[in-house]
Amino acid sequence: MPNAALYRYDPTLNIAIEEKNPVKICQYSACPRRDTGYEGKKMKVCARCKHVRYCSKECQKADWTGHKRRGCRDFQYWNDYTGWMEQYRTIFTWAATEALRIHTTDDILHNILQIFATYSDRIPAPVGPIPSPFYILSSQVIPLDADPLTAMIATPKEREESRAIRANGGAGRAILSFQFIEDPLNLAKSTSFMRPFKIDFEDPLIPGYRHFDGWRSVLAGVVNGTISVLDIDRSIGYQSSNANVEQLHEDAKAEEEELALLARSVKDVCMSG
């Protein structure tokens, strides 16, 4: 059986994505070898989850209590990309609504929502438990013709069907592009797997709708487990109060700080490896 840390599987597509150069970092934060690195050292994978590595049995034993508390789970033979996107369809639909400003512009006909994510086992332990197999790093809105890959997703047929939805009173078809990154700090050598996701907005546009500018941080916060979906239900809607929306802005700001902290943590781990 291939090592889960070396291969990513999608049961829907029946394909495997290989990670050619797995990062050698001992999971134990107090590992005495961190200052000298692990070049040439054979790493041992946790037999239960197969997602973290240790340089010795001593380090694995010392880290077991913390690793178990952080969510060591039985080994899963796949990463269900499609299932994950469907699981979070509600928040992705909300994010597309806000990012593409579907009720006040025709951006949905000209732009795409691009989302960068990495695998949860790539996130440093100090960040804490992560509720999903993927961790959102960032997101942005780019033109449909921004690059050949984007243009390939937004085919002439897709664009025509999007315009047809709008002609019938809806907003159009939102196209999301998910980029799954193996090593978020080394994109040049990282295995990146792309999956498109489409959402049809066929309901009538809402006059006077107020779009939410902090959608990026809220999207990341919900998927990464730092913002509750209930907070969005309470705070954003057609009858939202200013106080509730202000609270969601506070949550979004906190998530931005969390992502910045993550970036520093990943950098520190890599520099110490």
TrEMBL record:
Pfam families given for it? zf-MYND
Q: Which superkingdom heads the taxonomic lineage of this protein's source?
A: Eukaryota
The record ties this protein, via InterPro entries, to: Znf_MYND (IPR002893)
Entry annotated with the keyword Coiled coil: yes
Q: Which GO terms describe its molecular function?
A: zinc ion binding
The UniProt entry, under PROSITE patterns, shows:
ZF_MYND_2 (PS50865)
Which UniProt keywords are given for this protein, alphabetically ordered? Coiled coil, Metal-binding, Zinc, Zinc-finger
Which residues does the UniProt record annotate as the domain MYND-type?
Answer: 28-72
Give start-end ranges for the coiled-coil region(s). 238-265
Annotated protein name in UniProt = MYND-type domain-containing protein
What species is given as this protein's source? Lentinula raphanica
